[in-house]
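To illustrate the input format used throughout this study, we show a single complete record. The first block contains the structure-token representation of the backbone; no residue identities are included at this stage. The design step must infer an amino acid for every position from geometry alone.
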């Protein structure tokens, strides 16, 4: 019995020595690999509902995004009415501002509600009444879409400010140069986590001209960015409004497993010309802000299923076991089990022999 145990132990030791005699080549690559649940990010842009800008104007922002994410970005454009088939597999639906000539039909609203409830993300890009937007932009159907979602158990706690269907323009003469606001300096984030995420790795000022949003639901359910109280709003009729709490220019709300975001300054992600003379997307930290916004909405860290730190090359058994050796391990385990079984059977045989011996002795005594 002892000899069998010694032989088994020697066999295991020899296997271990054989395994650890080879270095784990390429282990740095293996351990530093990060696996994601998806192989690409799919962003859909609504270009059907008479939008004022789309893929063409957002292409440079999307190109920078593609370079910045760990997986490629695929962009699809909506050329017809929205439906669940189109939204299936889409990670973010971008809805640019429109001119108010094509409404969202009831079945489109239902598709958006279903999409949000089941983990979809919607970003509605607003814009202020600047340049051509002053006569073309309309928030009538955008706000109608937002309110109609309640019919399908999706209640949104914000909408875009609208007067005669037009948005407004925020000014702050006290803290900056009129309508050109610096996001890092002239606004207040409702949550530090939001601020850290959206402003990460941005050293350049983020210049914006923005419209405002209105809170229609429970403010505690929203994540917001507000202007300072010194700001004012001027609408299409040149009416001036003030808000002691500052104007909301960004709002986000979690909906079941999804998220909806309203941005009052969506034009800064386009190639339209800014007041500083360059394309908005090339001005200051606009492109980095867009990248951070998409990353925050996607929460791409949750997509990771394996994240292991890189290490120096080491000798690791399980990475380099040759197939014949790997087969020997279960054989050793099986051999141990067989030895144990035979040992138990031997004990039973001894017990049976003892019982038979006693029976024979008793029978002799009776005789």
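Output of the design step:
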């Amino acid at each position: 019995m002892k000899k069998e145990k010694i032989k088994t132990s020697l066999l295991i030791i020899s296997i271990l020595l054989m395994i650890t005699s080879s270095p784990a080549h390429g282990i740095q690559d293996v351990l530093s690999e990060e696996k994601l649940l998806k192989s690409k990010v799919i962003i859909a842009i609504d270009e059907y509902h008479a939008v004022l800008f789309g893929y063409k104007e957002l292409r440079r922002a999307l190109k920078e995004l593609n370079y910045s994410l760990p997986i490629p970005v695929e962009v699809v454009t909506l050329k017809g009415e929205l439906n669940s088939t189109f939204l299936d597999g889409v990670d973010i639906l971008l809805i640019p501002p429109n001119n108010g000539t094509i409404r969202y039909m009831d079945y489109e609203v239902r598709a958006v509600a279903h999409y949000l409830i089941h983990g979809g993300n919607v970003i509605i890009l607003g814009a202020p009444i600047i340049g051509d937007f002053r006569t073309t932009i309309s928030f009538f159907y955008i706000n109608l879409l937002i309110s109609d979602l309640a019919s399908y158990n999706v209640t949104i706690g914000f909408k875009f400010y609208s007067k005669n269907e037009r948005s407004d323009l925020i000014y702050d003469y006290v803290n900056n140069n009129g309508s050109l606001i610096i996001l890092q300096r002239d606004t207040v984030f409702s949550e530090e986590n939001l601020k850290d995420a959206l402003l990460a790795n941005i050293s350049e000022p983020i210049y914006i001209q923005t419209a405002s949003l209105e809170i229609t639901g429970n403010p505690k359910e929203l994540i917001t960015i507000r202007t300072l109280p010194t700001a004012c709003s001027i609408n299409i009729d040149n009416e001036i409004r003030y808000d002691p709490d500052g104007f909301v220019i960004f709002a986000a709300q979690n909906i079941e497993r999804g998220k909806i975001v309203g941005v009052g300054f969506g034009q800064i992600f386009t190639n339209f010309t800014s007041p500083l003379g360059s394309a908005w997307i090339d001005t200051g930290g606009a492109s980095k802000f867009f990248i951070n916004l998409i990353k925050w909405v996607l929460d791409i860290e949750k997509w990771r299923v394996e994240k292991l730190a890189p290490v120096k090359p080491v000798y690791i058994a399980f990475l380099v076991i040759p197939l014949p050796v790997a087969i020997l391990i279960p054989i050793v385990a099986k051999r141990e089990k067989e030895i144990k079984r035979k040992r138990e059977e031997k004990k039973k045989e001894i017990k049976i022999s003892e019982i038979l011996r006693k029976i024979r002795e008793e029978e002799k005594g009776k005789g």
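Structural context for interpreting the output: The first helix runs from residue 2 to 19. The CA atoms of residues 35 and 306 lie 5 Å apart.
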